[in-house]
Design goal:
disordered C terminus, 3 domains
Amino acid sequence: MFDTLSEKLQGALDGLKGHGKLSEADIDRAAREIRLALLEADVNFKVVKEFVAKVKERAMGVEVLESLSPAQQFIKIVNEELTALMGSATTKLTFSPRPPTVIMMVGLQGSGKTTACGKLAKFLVAQGKAPGMVACDVYRPAAVDQLKTLGEQLKVPVYDEGTNADPVDIAKHGVEWARQSGRDVLIIDTAGRLHIDEKLMNELVRIRNDVKPHNILLVLDSMTGQDAVNVAVQFQEKVAFDGVILTKLDGDARGGAALSVRAVTGRPVKFASTGEKLDNFEYFHPDRMASRILGMGDVLSLIERAEASLDEKKALELEKRLRKAQFTFEDFLDQLQQVRKMGSLQSILGMIPGLPTNKLKGLQIDDKAFDRVQALIQSMTVEERRHPELINGSRRRRIAVGSGNDIHAVNQLLNQFKQMQKMMKQLGSGKGPKNPFQMFGM
């Protein structure tokens, strides 16, 4: 996410480190590099101009020029201005005191709007809500079927009247259906087009006027950069949306849409879709995103992901076992499966402070290695998992054949496990490595 922008911004700021004091020439040079980085990231020109002007104005003041650590102070200013550019605070949905809360989803065809409806529904279920969805896209082939399939997958009911009814009537009837069926949130999936036209906008305005939604969310494909911002401006003029859902952020190396849309439209980014899976969906946190762009990590998101994914009871059980110097392949497999729930290793490493994105960019992390290790362990008997010392030559051959691997893979796993077992014993006795990355040989 935003790899190219992160690399260039971090490069511009790295040039300031080690300076005892910053001169105006140093600040001018850094500001020029930041300006080029943002323009190459497809950030709106006016937004870049104002951003760089604010950074320079603050940097030329006493807080940097008279600081004992001017480079750190300059980086702090860039971080604060990036956060302000994207909205300062996280903005959440507005919920009505009288259900159902109506959320109207708008956007162009191809932006991922229908999938975003499903992701939002799953997100709301996790928040303790009982959402329903309404299929108002009667023009795109299979749009209704796609929404119904998502509903079945999520066990979230979908209201539809086929493809021959008027979308405005479907939306009105859907609100009444939600009220009668006890749904406290209703997500309306509206039609999109390949481009903005009067028919599209007029239909959206009619739905908005008749249904009076509590939230109107514009779904934008972040990878389209300035085009996404231009689309947002036109939707804002006609529909007056409340916030933005940015899709495909995991594939956006530049970040132009994320950095421009609020400054241009005055409306915040509320949600970020960061992957293909339905649970790759979260509130957009400007401060955390700014930290990640500047290579400072995102500890809060990492903690939240861990809390949502990891089993606290199992963690306590493992702690007790470590104190007794016990660590088996069963423990290892259990920990492996819990880490997998948190997402890809690449995304997890990107949240850890001190691991700049320009260092991670060339790092090849094979998440399928998890599958291979899991297959190897599951090919062992229960006795072998608990007592790896029993695994002799014939057992290794059986494990290799059963898992679809070779003897070398079995030997490699056993050697790695011995090292991890030794380290776990050290952790249990309080003598383990102070730096957690030593555990992974990093």
